[in-house]
Amino acid sequence: xxxxxxxxxxxxxxxxxxxxxxxxxxxxxxxxxxxxxxxxxxxxxxxxxxxxxxxxxxxxxxxxxxxxxxxxxxxxxxxxxxxxxxxxxxxxxxxxxxxxxxxxxxxxxxxxxxxxxxxxxxxxxxxxxxxxxxxxxxxxxxxxxxxxxxxxxxxxxxxxxxxxxxxxxxxxxxxxxxxxxxxxxxxxxxxxxxxxxxxxxxxxxxxxxxxxxxxxxxxxxxxxxxxxxxxxxxxxxxxxxxxxxxxxxxxxxxxxxxxxxxxxxxxxxxxxxxxxxxxxxxxxxxxxxxxxxxxxxxxxxxxxxxxxxxxxxxxxxxxxxxxxxxxxxxxxxxxxxxxxxxxxxxxxxxxxxxxxxxxxxxxxxxxxxxxxxxxxxxxxxxxxxxxxxxxxxxxxxxxxxxxxxxxxxxxxxxxxxxxxxxxxxxxxxxxxxxxxxxxxxxxxxxxxxxxxxxxxxxxxxxxxxxxxxxxxxxxxxxxxxxxxxxxxxxxxxxxxxxxxxxxxxxxxxxxxxxxx
Length: 516
Fold this sequence. Notes:
alpha+beta, 16 helices, extended
């Protein structure tokens, strides 16, 4: 009995130590815990019925969670939908630069501005924009609105994502959407994985101490998440649609299911084209009655079925029937239906079919489609991200207290060479060198760290000496640096440079240098 009590006490202590370790990690704040039981996963079931999808789209804001779940399933199951979303996600380079906002006051650009630039650059580097910005973009494309909670410490920043059905957008502050969280849907088993703020909200909700005039709560179950929480959506109407939004690709769901059905019809047709019916006729008398016992006929039928190859079906009956081929029995227009379905699906997704390998009569169609998609990204994604990161920059303290803003470089991975050339051309007319470096892939912290290190520490100009080539030296320099021949030289022109004096030179023809 004593041994049993000691074992229970040890297990209890082990559990308490585990919880203490989890709380310690949460206190450190930057380690986002994994969810092995998928407790933060949306519980809404995706629909596979075309009629259900049409019903959802009739009242999209009331069925936003069903639409989001179905589109997420389509991202996995439908190659077209998945590749188009990946294509949009991979479009922007997510390169960015920063600049001070001088405003209408007379600021002196003192020497401490350099330190301000370094502090802002370091703060943005902690936000890990190249990693999280594509994640924000993809989740917003799929769900229409994505809800994230930022957790951080001195070493870095992470984000915890909440299911859309748990959250609603509440307001917009400086271009950033804030949201509330339904605490009635948060289970006790996820308590230890929550940040401290939400743990306190959970305790308050289950403690029953929420008053009607409490500014942190709505309807006594919706908790207004602090500025650590942010929602991302491309639809400003979410503020008047109950705090929800629909993916811009929602219209493609019905056509995606139609395309899947057309493909299934092709599979059925292919099976019908290869099926053969083998008929075994039972002998009958003048009255049409079988002349052999049914049990005997059954034995013959089973023996024949056991020896038939795949795709051949046996039929035993007294009717007159021999061999019925089913080739062509399926719908002959199935392949055309699939092609039409693909075109319609691409049309709904807003992407050119030739971009994904469809037939085209001009390469300009693909180029113009890429430019069109780039403009959509620049118009919808970048302002949303800039608003969010500009708010995060206000939390970084600088010596001069001058506000700073971030600017995403308007360039695409699919037109990268032309975009970089555009920023390079602007340098000739007084354009920003920082924007040019950002277009080349340098983050602000790399501009300071890498370039300063190369020049001041490595003295890289002394290491990377330009080699003499036709582009770096003149003819006079080449003549001075030319290798002299031996004293006895049978070729009088050996070691000389320049163009020959005549159009038909010989070994002793004089040559012209740059001075001549």
